[in-house]
């Protein structure tokens, strides 16, 4: 799956309610996957990415990496790598959880 496709898929799940993200006062967040009743905890960096995808579902990774670089004082390449790793990892894990629960 391409980086852009994974990002759009995750954003769509956040917008349509498949995933429910709750942002906590300490900057972290939790995601509830209603399909599998799975809870995923997120660091402050991951919570930042999820918040941006929720508020701007069409946001491209390049634009998101610029925002992340400015907020977390990292270069854009590092930010883009972290965004890709998070999005790809979440989509793969959630797809796997969905396929495991749909067969029962």
Structure, described:
- The protein has 104 residues and is of the alpha+beta class.
- The chain has one domain: Arc Repressor Mutant, subunit A (Orthogonal Bundle).
- Helices cover 62% and strands 14% of the residues.
- It has helices at 3-16, 44-55, 61-72, 76-102, and strands spanning 19-23, 29-33, 38-42.
- A three-stranded antiparallel sheet has the order 1-2-3.
- Helix 1 (3-16) crosses helix 4 and helix 3 (61-72) crosses helix 4 (76-102).
- The longest helix is centred in the C-terminal third of the chain and has 27 residues, at 76-102.
- It is globular.
List the keywords:
single chain, 104 residues, alpha+beta, Arc Repressor Mutant, subunit A, 3-stranded antiparallel β-sheet, 14% strand
């Amino acid at each position: 799956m391409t980086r852009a496709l994974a990002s759009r898929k995750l954003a769509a799940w956040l917008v349509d309610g498949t995933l429910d993200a709750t942002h906590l006062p300490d900057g972290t967040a939790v995601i509830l996957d209603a399909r599998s009743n799975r809870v995923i905890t997120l660091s402050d960096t991951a919570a930042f990415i999820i918040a941006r995808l929720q508020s701007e579902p069409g946001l491209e990774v390049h634009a998101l990496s610029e925002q992340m670089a400015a907020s977390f004082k990292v270069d854009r390449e590092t930010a883009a790598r972290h965004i890709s790793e998070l999005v790809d990892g979440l989509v793969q894990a959630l797809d796997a959880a969905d396929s495991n629960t749909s067969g029962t």
